[in-house]
Amino acid sequence: MRPGAAFAGFRQVLLDPLAITSPAQEEQARSMDPQRYAPTPEYLQQLGRTYRESFAAEFSRGGLSLATEPGPGVLRLSG
Fold first, then answer.
1. Whole-Å CA distances, 18 to 27, 43, 54, 77
2. Are 75 and 7 in contact (CB under 8 A)?
3. Its pTM surpasses 0.90
4. Residue 55: exposed, middle, or buried by beta-carbon count in 10 A (0-12, 13-18, 19+)?
5. 3, 15, 57, 65: which has the fewest Cβ within 10 Å?
6. Shortest CA distance to 9 belongs to which of 77, 72, 79?
7. Tens digits of per-residue pLDDT, 29-73?
8. Torsions phi, psi of 67, nearest 5?
9. Virtual CA dihedral for 60, 11, 9, 58, nearest 10 degrees?
């Protein structure tokens, strides 16, 4: 978020799940450093939780709670 961003018209934030995609298998084979490994599903789930928790904490500091569905006064974020 940009410091000083105004959210005056919003009371809540709806965070869509974080979308993480893996490269195509051929691309991954070409670019994969033998010392690196593809992320596990557990790692990707933790990354999604960290994203959600971090954004929720930041918006909470600004007085916005998390919404469970879209509606008036709800800012929706996708990522």
1. 22, 13, 12, 10
2. yes
3. no
4. middle
5. 3
6. 72
7. 666 565 566 678 888 889 889 989 999 998 898 889 999 999 999
8. -100, 155
9. 10
